[in-house]
Amino acid sequence: MRPEVALPVLLPLLSGALSLLFWRSRPMQRFIAVAGNIALLLVSLWLFVAVWSDGYITMQMGNWPAPFGITLIADMLSAVMILMTGIIGLAMGIYSLATTGRGHEKFGYYPLMHLLLAGVAGAFLTGDIFNLYVWFEVMLVASFALLILGGERAQMEGAIKYVTLNLLASVIFLTAVGLLYGTVGTLNMADIALRLDEAEHSGMVEVLAVMFMVSFGIKAAAFPLFFWLPASYHTPPVAVSALFAGLLTKVGVYSLFRVFTLMFDQTMGYLQDIMLWGAVFTMVTGVLGAAAQYEFRRILSFHIVSQIGYMILGLALYTPLAIAGGVFAIVHNIVVKTNLFLISGITHRLQGTYQLKKMGGLYRERPWLAVAFFISAFSLAGIPPLSGFFAKFVLVRAGLEAEAYVATGIALAVGLMTLYSMVKIWNEVFWKDLPENNHVPSPQASAGDDGRLIKPSLWMMYLPVVVLAAMSLLIGVFAEPIMQVMILIGDQLMNPSGYIEAVMGTSASAEAALLEPFEGQAEPISEDAEGNP
Amino acid sequence: MEPLMALAIGLLYATAIFMMLRRSIVKLVIGLLLLSNGANLLIFTTAGMTRGAPPLIPEGMLQPLGDVADPLPQAVVLTAIVIAFGVLAFAVVLIRRAYEIVKADDLDKMKDTDT
Amino acid sequence: MQLAVLMGFVLAASSPLLNRWFGHRASFVLALFPALIAAWLVSQAPSVFSDGPLLLEWQWVPSLGISLTFMLDGLSLLFGLLITVIGACVLIYAGGYLKGHVDIARFHLALVAFMVSMLGLVLADGLITLFVFWELTSITSYLLIGFNHSNIEARKSARQGLFVTVAGGLALMAGLVLLGVASGNWSLYEIGQMESDLREHALYTPMLICLLLGAFTKSAQFPFHFWLPNAMAAPTPVSAYLHSATMVKAGIYLLARLQPELGDTALWVGILSVVGATTMLTGAFLAIHHTNIKKLLAYSTIMALGTLTMLVGIGTDYAMTAFVTFLLAHSMYKGALFMVAGILDHETGTKDVTAMGGLRGLMPVTATIAFVAALSLAGVPPLFGFIGKELMLEAVLAAEGFRALMLLFAFVSAILTIAVAAIIALRPFYGRRHETPKTPHEAPFSMLLGPGLLAVGSLSLGLLPALLGGNALLTSAATAVSGQPLEVSLSLWHGINVALIMSLVSLGLGFLLFKHWDRVRSHLATLAPVMRYGPEAGYEGLMNYIVRFSEWQTRLLQNGYMRNYILVMLLVLIALIGNSILLRHSPQLALTLDVQFHEVVVVGTMVMGAIFATISRSRLGAVVSVGIMGFSIALIFILFSAPDLGITQLLVETLTVILLVLVLFRLPRFSNLSTNLERIRDGAVATTMGVLIFLLIMTAWSIDQFEPISVYMIENSAPLAYGRNIVNVILVDYRALDTLGEMFVLALAAIGVIAMLKLRHDGTVNEGDKNNTKEPYDG
Amino acid sequence: MVKSGTIILNTAARFLMPLQLMFSVFLLLRGHDEPGGGFIAGLVAAGAFTLYLFAFGVSATKEVLRMVDPRDLIGVGLLLGMISVVPAWFMGQPFLTAQWWTIPVIDFKASTPLIFDVGVYLAVLGSVMGMVMALMEVDKDEP
Fold first, then answer.
1. Closest by alpha carbon to A231, among D62, C408, C557?
2. Separation in Å, CA of A97 to nearest CA in chain D
3. Does D83 touch chain C (CB under 8 A)?
């Protein structure tokens, strides 16, 4: 009984349920929000330490042996992703206290946030493919609701695209699950992996792989399936944008990593090239999309797409080092991208706009904010010794070792284009003097929601920003321990037998033991049944 | 039976996709509705269909009488139906609000956030 | 030592504090740091000279082969001393130059950080550590160039410098990784010790090209030289330090560092010689276009960098000697000259040499320093610059490939350089006194100390080359560059030889050019239209093109039309599935049809419902058709042994229809929005998808390879889970987690719906909370 | 949209609603053994209230619900669902492991799956009611 593997899912569910129950009381909601986030962070740390020291940790929910019940399993990848969820969750919790309007708080902002985290955590921990679908839906519906909270025109327009295209992905996913069950007769991912290896109809296996690839590709916003992201991510309140940017697309990427290392490893020969070019085009189109933009959050949104390309590149190269690099990129990107969105929120609060042309002068006015942005932005561009550099370096090294020269070269060039956008923001927002025509921001505009702000508690906005910026720096400076974790992840993912054993191994014998007495009983009954009619 | 169902489900998917490609938001949502129904039927069908043997165990017995229909896809579809309903309700209200704002049932008039 | 370097970053970060504590004397305090490091370097010098490279091991990311190990050999010692000594001078100088500036603390921060990065760069042994420091110098220099960030030119120049150097940096990274992969080693020292020859490795050419791109961009080689003159937007201390003595030499350092392992191939010699010589000529030629004293100096720096590159390319022992000597000489006189330029700018308020004149009397010390340094630049004996230039000419004369070209370029450059030197040394200080924006007077001591020291250095090293172990230092450095033991012994007098004659002739011609400079310039001005097609225009054009391309791409891809988005996604899906199931493999069909009449009717009704929903022109018709379809599905569920499903579907369908009616009630009629062509296209896509789904279902259904896990559930439902409705047992026990999630989905959808409907209408609805009676959302 | 229905609808709703609610509870309790269960029961109950809603309008329905906001139902339902997860932990078993207790006097088998199913019931009821009532309320405001 290892509760730590289930608690990261159950705790946010519980805090979500509690905060729904206390929907009348704002102070209570705010308290539950932060307390729940702190608890989630602690539990995720617990899980991380446990996985680091003990290896795979599993729990058979309901005490039904695998593959019959639902398995929750944490390997190193899950543990890292959960840890990131915990960190980002708390950062967002604190930040939201300062930015969320009363109306939003009243209509379920905090429960939605917690349930979103629960969905994310569930997706990271589940070992069951249909359960993964369920967590995806929890996450999606929570994100739908968060996206439209406030009900402005832009939000509605963005939400329609977001909702429809994500639902399309969900249906493809569901269709694939149905076909998968029809093909192999099981839903447990480890069991599926075993059975797919023996499957005779390799065409069906490939089709399933392709369907999962497209479905998760949509959720991850890979080329050419990313349209929903730039259309919607810049529309909701900034804390929501940040949360989405940090975590949501990464769930899609995580699923790609999980499914293609565990279940569909035999199809990689064919799919690798497709994925590689998908990754390359994702990087390029994303970064080019940002080059023409002059809206803070829109630039950042396009960069999410571009960064997704890096992560998928890691998977497409399909070596342990490349996987390590891809995961490093995920971790780095979660920290940095969230932070950049949070910073855009602060600048918006300070200057009342997201339009770069109208902003300026923050380098002199807010040096600490400038430092935080500088670190995050240049980290995103992969400048050493920040976190992004190591992600990029590992990927470049893996790419060159795998002799994928073109893809690696493009990955490097994309880094330069990332720098272009980041320098654009830096020059416009921080270095340039504030343009004459910008008036002092009105509080009405500042939170993007209901205009009845609590006192502008800037420190609550600064705290997460500074901490995340420091994280980006520290990940770079103390890259060794992190790299060891990443290398372990690379090993674990490329050798899924450990995962399968952790799920099936011990319970395989239990399954036999459980089945045995019934086989004796079942047979006469079934004979009866055959005889009767 | 399954080949017939497969044909019908294929048709369901086709109509759904055709509807989703229209410019009207309402048609889009109806397309989504058709699509999720299609997916549910697909799960139900691929696992094999059985006549007149629901997965129930008669009172006082430990095992069902004879072969019964596979209960797992049923449970999965049940979950999927409810999820689809929730999502659909959300989508339906979304188009209502979107219509209030845009004043037209035309997706082409909703591209301000992209360009 | 590593600690010292890392402490440097801490020191940099704390410089705002130091500025608060020590006021304008903070510069002196900060200058102590490089001075101490210089002292340490000097103390280590004897052992380096005698025992070879000193390795200071320190791990960083061992799992990636990244170490923070420092290697101190002759080359890094030479560079280290340049960085620290000139660094100390510049810090003190900057204290005077920027006295009272509001941002001086930030300036100190960036400058010290840069200095430390540069030091790390030349000391690093690990390939990746070298790169890390390399990029850090790019970033800090970005901050320094953009120091006057209110000025749009400064911002632009900073960005340009950053892009060019970082672009090169990325190539360098690729090159270094290739080097690491090819050699299997991530340490420069160990690569130097390797048996195998990298020159024969299959990756040699790409590796070399990447590395050279990195070095060339950083060291402003043609055609990447344009960023350097623009970088003169930086305050002058920065130009003196970064853009003459240190950062721009990082690329040169890299070339010298790699020459023992990678040099001496046809490719290496060819590229370096030609690029170096071209850069040399370009720099010298462009220099005399300008009257801005900093630009003049910047272009002459480009000329010097070209010379250095060329020398590394030649690669002979003689060239190596020339290389180290020229390097040292150039750093000293160019640093001094930049600082003099800064003094002139600071005191007169203009950078235009033609606007100055007759300042000798007012600023005697400055004038003397300028004169000495300029003589060194011109290569006039007895200054150190003369030795450097002589050696350079001799090395070129002894070169094997491209000798004629290099000789010609070198000779012309020498003439031009002499003219430049004369312009700087004579023009501002002699002749008629001009009115300047500020009234000039002699600069303060802090600003004279640095250039004075460097000028004295140029003079004394020229007179007594062996002074202060100069020979030993250069011997050791040249040995490191050439890879084999080399003896350097410098002297002013080499006898009368070709080089000396060339020097003398160029001196005369150069002076002639100086005399007629104004006329030459007006002639050159007619060339201006041609000059517009330089590499800088290429850079600008590329940047504009990228932005335009990106706009075009965004319009194309992110076009806002939802149906296009869906279409693209579906086409991807169809292509991939179709390719897999139809082309690469084949579907499996088992067309055994076992149907009963009533089943056909139900299925037929369902299909008709779906089709009518598609073609119906009225909303109500569509909703009714959808309802019919839903109820037929419920019937199918019930017919095929799924009573729970049937009931659920029935109830859900009822609610769905209610919802649809409630909502669609307000919407307009369907209108025909698409063209016929679009309909046909969409129909084709939809049909293809439908066919594929059909094939997939048939295939999945006909595969009967594995026993489904539900067998276990059926068997254990009653005995272990105490439930006889197996579906319900699955929902609340076997797979209760799914159901838990599902509850939350439904709840979330409800919250979303309520929020969506009420958040705007809040206050008009009786919610019991009267605080929110206003309508903040209408806008 | 619908302010009040016809007399037939009103009468039907008035009599049908208690019956439907009772039926839904019946479906809920027998769900573990026969077709039924939390979802179905919750949907039936929601159908009952929806019928009432159509017949008598929002405010009347609110009165019937006696100040129980649908959101409270959702909260309680979800919380019950979460509560049923935990007991197994105290027994040292994985979460969600079913626990069965027999209540002695009425010989009723209580179990965590039952609590769970009740949670589902309430959550489904609350969610559907929440949506429908919100829609109707807004419709009422915007004639």
1. C557
2. 22
3. no
Q: Which two tokens stand for residue A252?
A: 């899609």
Please report, for chain B, the start and end positions of each structural domain, with discontinuous segments joined by +: 2-50+70-109
pLDDT the model gives residue C99: 83
Q: How far apart are CA A135 and CA A122, in angstroms?
A: 6
Residue D110: HSE in the Cβ half-sphere, 13 Å Cα cutoff:
9
Task: Flag whether A447 is in a domain.
Answer: no
- Please report, for chain C, the start and end positions of each structural domain, with discontinuous segments joined by +: 1-158+233-258, 265-527, 566-588+677-705, 596-671, 707-758
Average pLDDT, chain A: 87
* Within a domain: A525: no
pLDDT tens readout for residues C42-59: 898 888 888 888 888 888
**Strand runs labelled E in A191-321:** none
The four Cα atoms B95, B98, B99, B102 give a dihedral, to 10 degrees, of -150
Contact C49, C75 (CB under 8 A): no
On whether residue D142 sits in a domain, the answer given is no
* Contact (CB<8Å) D33/B93: no
Residue C41, both tokens? 């370097």
- Quick one: which H or E segment has residue A291? helix A268-291
Q: Which of residues 6-35 of D touch C (CB under 8 A)?
A: 31-35
- To 10 degrees, the CA torsion angle through C7, C9, C13, C16? 80
What is the domain extent for residue A7? 3-436+455-504
Measured between CB atoms, which of D78, D88, D93 is closest to A17?
Answer: D78
Instruction: For residue C146, give the 3-state DSSP assignment.
Output: coil
Mutate to test the interface with A, among D95, D97, D111, D122 (most CBs of A within 10 A): D95
* Contact state of B62 with A521 under an 8 Å Cβ cutoff: yes
Return the SS3 of A60: strand
Six-digit token string for A505: 């191994």
Give residue for tokens 């997460």: A464
Contacts across the A-C interface (CB distance below 8 Å)? 324
Question: Closest Cα partner for A210 from A136, A268, A128?
Answer: A268
Q: Which tens digit of pLDDT belongs to each residue from C633-670?
A: 999 999 999 999 999 999 999 999 988 888 877 777 77
C-beta separation of C283 from C305 below 8 A:
yes
Nearest residue in chain D measured CA to CA from C740: D81
Other residues' Cβ atoms within 10 Å of the Cβ of residue C574:
17
Q: Which residues pair with C71 in a beta bridge?
A: C55
CA A474 from centroid of its chain's CA atoms: 21
In a domain? residue A236: yes
Would you identify the CATH topology of the domain B2-50+70-109?
Helix Hairpins (1.10.287)
Helix (H, G, I), strand (E, B), or coil: what is residue D103?
A: strand
For residue D24, is it within any domain?
yes
**Residue D141: what pLDDT?**
63
Residue span of the structural domain in which D103 resides? 5-137
Chains touching A (at least 3 CB pairs under 8 A) are: B, C, D
Which one of D1, D32, D33 makes the best mutation probe of the B interface by having the most chain B beta carbons within 10 Å?
D33
> Which helix H or strand E contains D108, and what residues bound it?
strand D108-111
Domain count for chain D, please give it. 1
Distance, in Å, from the CA atom of C105 to the CA atom of C110, rounded to the nearest integer, reads 9
What ipTM is given for this predicted complex? 0.92
Considering all CA atoms of chain C, what is the largest pairwise distance in Å, rounded to the nearest integer? 116
**Alpha-carbon gap, residue A139 to A124, rounded angstroms:** 12
* Number of structural domains chain A divides into: 1
**Integer Cα distance of B40 and B42 in angstroms:** 5
Q: Which two tokens stand for residue C572?
A: 């991807």
Confidence of residue A35 (pLDDT cuts 50, 70, 90): very high
